[in-house]
Known about the structure:
Its main location: secreted. This protein is mostly beta strands. The strands form 15 sheets. Strands 1, 3, 5, 7, 8, 10, 11 and 12 form an eight-stranded mixed beta sheet that branches. Strands 14, 15, 16, 18, 19, 21 and 22 form a seven-stranded antiparallel beta sheet that branches.
Amino acid sequence: AEHIPVSLHFSSLPFTPGWSCPPSAAEVYFSSWQLGLTADGYCSRVLRAQSNRKEGNSEFRLRVEGDPESYHPGSTYRVTVTAASPSYFRGFTLIAMKDGAEGDKDEDYAGNFQIIDEEETQFMTNCPPAVTESTPRRRTSIQVFWTAPPSGSGCVFLKASIVQKRIIYFQDEGLLTKKLCEKDTTDKPLLDCCACGTAKYRVTFYGNWSEKIHPKDYPRRANHWSAIIGASHSKNYVLWEYGGFASEGVKQVAELGSPVKMEEEIRQKGDEVLTVIKMKAQWPAWQPLNVRAAPSAEFSVDRTRHLMSFLTMLGPSPDWNVGLSAEDLCTKECGWVQKVVQDLIPWDAGTDSGVSYESPNKPSVPQEKIRPLTSLDHPQSPFYDPEGGAITPVARVMVERIARKGEQCNIVPDNVDDIVADIAQEEKEEDDTPETCIYSNWSPWSACSSATCEKGKRMRQRMLKAQLDLSVPCPHTQDFEPCMGPGCSDEDASTCMMSEWITWAPCSVSCGAGTRSRERYVKQFPDDGSICTLPTEETENCVVNEECSPSSCLVTEWGEWDVCSATCGLGMKRRERMVKMPPADGSICGAEVLEVEKCMMPECHTIPCLLTPWSDWSDCSVTCGKGLRTRQRMLKSPVELGECTEELEQVEKCMLPECPIDCVMTEWSEWSECNKSCGKGHTIRTRMVMLEPQFGGDPCPEAIQRKKCKIRKCNRGQGNSDEKKRRKEQREKRRSKQGRAEGNSEHPGCRMRPWSSWTECTKICGGGIQERLMTVKQKIKTAQLSSCKDRKEIRACNVHPC
């Protein structure tokens, strides 16, 4: 009853010589669209079917994986057509056309479809750009890949038609049509920035990857974010990007969580980079903000280096990361972006093929391109969703402008919120420290950020050493208060408010002694209308490569100081610079590339849980297969201060190459009878392989052995003829005995069938096994079961060496 009525649709359908197989259901229904086709075979009337049609249904839906609002040129997407239960469909047609196209020429069609399952889908015979079903049958879903067209193709309509009995569902504006436009080119970094001066930003990273939000296979013990590494840079440098290949630095961040190589790559870019961005790792990955502040860092941008990129590893994982790539902080109005907030989903660096958090190492050969993870990558993926929905973000990043330097040339004036964001001061809060929070003493107040009569702030800090009750949050570890320069009054109407000093500009020379400067600007002029006399620029001497001679080398500016080696008290910090150009005369560069100096942190306070840093992970506990590895830390504070409940050892799983498995054989069989009744012969015994060797285990030994045998000497002449006579008698006896076997002599109460043929040898060389069977043909009722049963014989075969 559900088959397509041929008389209805073929009455005016001409013979189509191009069909080599029966047409699909969709092709039969849509054949009316093909009338009047041009010789080039395009289905120009695919959108004007004359069959029965139903509008406004919600049973069927066309969906593009991830539900994007736009497409990236050249990217590939999974397209599905589904029917809501209990509905189904027998045939379908799927086509992608440019907005406003009629479908009568080649360029009207956008992108290319790729078949996933040839048993389900095929390209339409008389309409090659379209996809239809392979065989008409009940189905609830189909899926294909669609590769988006190149840049400049404009908007595209993905349209699906559904065949169900005699009804064609086709919607121009509904769940069976999806409109995708090319991703706006304004999303790409501006080729040239027209902003003036420089701007200073703070980037803050909020990790939302937790067991509550992402419960599948969540790694409870080892979850963390690696140290964050990035830079503000020009358009000529790309840290990472979708569709590109990961550098060695990106690979080491993605697989090992190590930023060292990435920082080296960034610093080697010289003038293409303005600021290196670094933030500490987070263990564990998710932490309430009332326990520990989110990682943040400050950086600057200018007209040529107005892009910002960073990345951090999601650990443990094969090679998964989150981050921003070439985020443009310059506006089209020649100003600086005030704020950027973006949710982040993980992306694959293309260097490891693992599918789960703790997959063993499996390098991608050849290396693949960087791509965002999707919910349909692999059923074992922790982000897998059979419906193909979007992945829940694992992190959020916020980039805020905190200061501007130099004269700004944007034509759009700041609004009140914009000004406040630049000059807002943090207000001091009351100290409501709970007794369950143990801190170090407050450090001394820092110097005021203003050395003159501008409004500034000063800071003090303390260290959170222990949280005795995790249910009671511990307040902030930093304290701020407003301040002004010596002799200034906060109520003085002649006070002018200045911005903070911007980062020092590069040294004026590349070799020898020079100068460098930094600037600030007036945020607010005095209320009494007087002129602000505070300096807006200051200069200091700088030295780059002390000697300028053929034996001198060219080095970069010093990098930022590393974090102090001590968490409290006296420690050390270091900074580095790179050699940009070795000496012209080929000698060794004598310039210092490493500086170390002392640093003072807040006073150390003895508390029950003062711990050393974690040691490196130990070697795996096994030499092959699955094992464990550990790391430890030591208690530094005296035990007299009380019991410390923090864990001092951590254990995690480790995976090494599989252990070798040796070949396992059965026991030897009994020796066979000698193959000759007189003279020299041989006898054999065999054994079989129970388990083949794996992962480089010991190979299987011989499966067959033979040895010589000699029963007696053979007689010659008359004796020989007597021997032949004797052998003939023995053969007759054996035949008689075999006949009696069928006659119940050997098997009382049974009649046996003759022996079957020998089976094929189990091996073609090196010694195999053959067997044959004798089965019971008839049992006498009075016969005992134990005396009447099948027999089996085994012999060796193909004993020659391989």
